[in-house]
Amino acid sequence: MSNCSAPAHSLCSVCVPPLSSAFTQIFSMLDTAAEQMMVRTDFQAAFDTCNKGLENLAGMELEDNRCWEYKAGFCTLGIQALAELNQWRAVLPWVLQQYENQQEIPPKIVQLCILLYSKVGQPAVMQEAAGRWLRRPSNRSAPGFRTVAELYLLHVLLPLRRREEAEELILGEIGSSVFTEDQRQTALELLEEKEQQDLNSSRDAPAAADGVSARGATLCKLEAVLRFFFRRLPSTRCFRFQRVFLAATLLYLLFLRLDPAHPSSFMWISKLFQLLKQVWRTLFGPYYQAASRGP
């Protein structure tokens, strides 16, 4: 370990000039990576620069706060670059490669990883890594520890339905040290609400599927009736009756059977539109076209 309080003939007189030059180069690389990311939007070049900067930092055997800060900066930019390159699966392995002890990852890096994997719908990826990070006692003094705990609860445990682990986080030693009583109560209420929503969704799913299938069968029958009707009746003598029947059918579909807010309505609208086009061609097209559609 380098210690500048040592005597003048020790490492202090030898390491100071190279240290300043090395950090100047590191800062320049970090600035270049940020420019490649934000200004040039060259994400691959930004990631390559971050990798090179991290390699240079690894060769600097110095326990200095600036090393940790620059390392966190390179990792932050690297995560963003991988996300922009749609290589989000490589983010966590790459971060763990930079930090041999994953429990020493800076809080803002853990937060960024949780949010990233939550956004792509893969919260389970961060369950083990974030859980271990939170269980390390020395991390509880970190400024972003509480934020990590909140994100872990909201974006990992709740989506994965890990109720027991969520309750342990809220009511256990971690929750008692970072959450107030009101916050713990709010979190428990959120758990109850989420569980009730999942229960209601599981109950409504079969009924919704049955409703969609029933509507589909009714629509098929209605199509068959309409096609038979407009093919069999001569349009020259029953045109007025056909228009009345068509208007009544449309009103029935629009006001009684068709719910525009329901997702299954899109299927009805599409099929109804196709059916109306065929009816229109039958009623108003040339006689030989109508005759060619006859049975």
Briefly characterize the structure.
With 295 residues, the chain is an all-alpha fold. The protein has helices spanning 12-38, 43-58, 65-84, 91-98, 107-119, 127-135, 145-157, 163-171, 173-178, 181-232, 235-257, 265-284, 287-292.
Structure, explained:
Helix content is 75%, strand content 0%. Among the domains are: 21-98, no CATH class; 100-200. The longest helix is centred in the last third of the chain and has 52 residues, at 181-232. It is flat. Helix 1 (12-38) packs antiparallel against helix 2, helix 1 (12-38) runs parallel beside helix 3 and helix 5 packs parallel to helix 7 (145-157). By secondary structure, the protein is mainly alpha-helical. One of its GO terms (biological process) is protein import into peroxisome matrix. It comes from Tetraodon nigroviridis (Spotted green pufferfish). Pfam families: Pex26 (PF07163). This is Chromosome 19 SCAF14731, whole genome shotgun sequence.
Main attributes of the structure:
13 helices, single chain, disordered C terminus, disordered N terminus, mainly alpha
What form results from the Cα inertia axes? flat
- The fraction of residues in strands falls at under 5%
Would you identify the regions where 5 or more consecutive residues have pLDDT less than 50? 1-18, 234-239, 255-260, 290-295
Oligomer: single chain
Q: Which structural class should the secondary elements be placed in?
A: mainly alpha
Mean pLDDT: 76
- Helix residue percentage: over 70%
Run of helices and strands: HHHHHHHHHHHHH
Write the layout of secondary structure elements.
Layout lengths: L11 H27 L4 H16 L6 H20 L6 H8 L8 H13 L7 H9 L9 H13 L5 H9 L1 H6 L2 H52 L2 H23 L7 H20 L2 H6 L3
